[in-house]
Amino acid sequence: MTESTLFAPLATMDAVTASPVAAPTILQEPAGHPRTRIIAEVRSRPGVSITDLALATELGHTTVCHHLGVLQRRGLVVRERWGGSVRIFPTDLSPTHRALLAQVRAGRTGEVLRALAARPRSSPTALGRELGLHRQAVQWHLSRLEKAGIVRVDREHRPYRITLTVKPESVLRLVPDAGGAAPRAGYG
Length: 188
Prior knowledge:
Radius of gyration: 17 Å
Distance between the termini: 21 Å
Oligomer: single chain
Helix content: 40-55%
Number of strands: 5
CATH architecture of the largest domain: Orthogonal Bundle
Number of helices: 9
CATH topology of the largest domain: Arc Repressor Mutant, subunit A
Number of domains: 2
């Protein structure tokens, strides 16, 4: 997957503008170097967890953390805590892009987001029925998405009116198998 195809879906999101960032330092390590492998994986899977990054690069967790620190000081990656894990992003993604990618990769919350993107007018009850979750669990995941600025929930009406703040097609393009759970390696 090339960089242009990877970030093409991000460019189509509404209400999303790229944040200005300083030009990152060029990576000068040889092709097989751990930092080269790490940055390639982060660019191909923005929002990857440290555990999944260690598995994909076949490096130890401590080694990955060390090299991420170097890459972060060089302005090539950003670490952000989302839920119970730290997600790694290239620095050229806006905060809104990072929030969306983190939620798409966030287990059950990502499943709720993908299901909502596939069927934007669904209620929490309908989403729960589709995903095998209780309505209250769906509402908890919707509150996470709402805090991240990805959905708006109008609680004045019954059933709740849920509105995506990004184009549903953008979410669906980020995860090819949006009809079901995204495959996850490790604990990601």
